[in-house]
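Ticket #461: bound-state structure for F0G.
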Amino acid sequence: MKLPYAEPYKIKSVEPIRKTTRSEREQLIEEASFNLFNLRAEKVFIDLLTDSGTGAMSQHQWAEIMLGDESYAGATSYFKLKNSVETILDMPYFLPTHQGRAAENVLFETLMGHNGDGKIVPGNSHFDTTKGHIEWRGAKAVDCTIDEAFDTTVDHPFKGNIDLAKLADVFEKTPREQIPIVILTITCNSSGGQPVSMENIKAVSKLCKDAGVTLFFDAARFAENAYFIKIREKGYENKTIKEIVLEMFSYVDGCTMSAKKDGIVNMGGLLAFRNEELFRKACTFNIMFEGYLTYGGLAGRDLGALSVGLCESTEFDYLEARCGQVAYLGAKCREYGIPVQEPFGGHAIFVDALKVFPHIPREQYPAQLLGVELYIEAGVRGVEIGTLLADRDPVTRQDRFPKLELLRLAIPRRVYTNSHMDYIAAGLANVLERASSIKSGFAVTWEAPIMRHFTVKLRRI
Ligand code: F0G
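RESOLUTION: The complex was predicted; output attached.
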């Protein structure tokens, strides 16, 4: 018999979580104006709001916390991180930042200042904050993801891929000086945690080189992407994750990274560069926005913990258990007839709310309804990836309806067991069973002018 995967660690310290009663949860979610962000975390039994900054650090990472060197400049912890960035990512220059979006801010300030008018940044479904930093500067983020990514019924091993023809078309129609960079997000969060193949990375790199355009990764989940290359792409089955990561990074000029995901730290980020000139330019903005070059908005101890996290997340056994757990939840859901996006991504399972609530109009936010009902049912918190998140059109102020209404269940790293996964799937199955008896969704009673989903207030219709 082939042995199944098992977590390559055992548990030394536990954090208690408590159940609430159903009637408590009904009251709590109403007091929270039906916005899951407004709940107190202690009133959530299993928290799948995000996989960002919610991972469990290892004993080696906690040891680095104690060893943290808090010197303002040139701290030992900085050099430990520098060593990891050099050996794992093979990037000669890097800047620490306090999180991923801070790295994006420094990068886009370096590339275009506040003068992004007419500039175009192609990519594969840019993450919200990346898009925010591009659009806030007056530039445009152009999505060149392959069409297969937007059909949940199509089985494609690399739904994060860029459509080369779409990218070539952008290059053809846009003067070179108007394209400061291409951003390739690995894995692609916005298309469901879907990976990008090595073949695609290579081809995008060649297109960019030929056009003289800089190519960066948004590398938040780079290790999970490498895992999918190993298990799905021909020619990589016998390579180690670390070898695959090195090859991936050999095709790009640098990266931004939210270290709160595959860095397995609670806070942190970085910018890495191959080109010294671009790095030098970015240094000024890092000092202005983040902190000195060798700490960049982080404590020395955080740098040390990240240096270890990067090594641990690029181990095959860890990734097999990590992505295996996400797939375990996906398979359980499928078994219960819960409509989930396939193939399963690296960090989350996405439930198709339009199939759970076909009778609820999109104006009543069916994915939010699913999130609220799952909380009431089981004390599990996910996040809406649908019309509330997509927000209103800035000009017409009408709701913008995205292609899908999804509830994202993001799994924190090394935190929950498969019994928790069983519990989540059972909770969803119970919601599915009574879905047709739920007759209506929500109406907005208050919302912010932008990024409304964080703070929106809702009422039941
Ligand atoms: N890029 C990607 C692909 C992300 O998923 C995130 C964050 C960021 C950049 C920004 O990084 O949070 O450290 O500033 N994603 C989180 C999530 C918030 O829940 O998916 P950050």
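RESOLUTION NOTES: The radius of gyration is 22 Å.
TICKET STATUS: resolved
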